[in-house]
């Protein structure tokens, strides 16, 4: 999902609304971390009244996605930069601890890429519309840019490792259930030929080619993780684009 429309003006630094938002974000991030820490616990093992642990990355991604939206709507660079960096760091902690979930992973990372590339430009990287708080030529500090570069590099490596497993959290159960349902209705057709006798499942002739197409699309998406942010960081920090190996 795209980033929501931010406020027209940043929150007043030190004001009541900013303090309220900071309290909300800190509380929510603590809860997200707490649910991640309880990921190995069964629901019945969690004390009554406490939030259950995450059982899939999709559950965690739903909460992280919501956090990104709230931070972005603030329209306040002094909050957007540090909190989005913290959220991006959460992704590097969470991804290795759950079965692969490509769709949820790319959804959140694409949104973070949009946010960071926009902040680095001071304008929405999709629409070109100036961002609140950047009218006076405000820039992200070099320290934050270096930190962002480190997180981006780490994330790209982790995504490759996290999504390289054979299982697919989002797909395995659905495919298994669908297969069982269709297998009960699908007739096995036995085709005789001059060379051999084979048993075929109707509708599964192109299964292997479909899997290969999915793998190709996934590899392409992995290569595009933080692609726009990388381009902006390459311009502001100098040197070759992140993720490209040189001979030097």
UniProtKB/TrEMBL annotation:
In this chain, composition skew of type Basic and acidic residues spans: 178-203
| Organism domain of life | Eukaryota
| GO CC annotations on file | transcription factor TFIIH holo complex
Q: Show the segment(s) annotated as Disordered.
A: 167-218
Q: Where is the composition biased (Acidic residues)?
A: 168-177, 204-217
One matching Pfam family? TFB6
Instruction: List the protein's name.
Output: Meiotic recombination protein DMC1
Please tell me the species this chain comes from: Lophiotrema nucula
Q: What is the lineage of its organism?
A: Eukaryota, Fungi, Dikarya, Ascomycota, Pezizomycotina
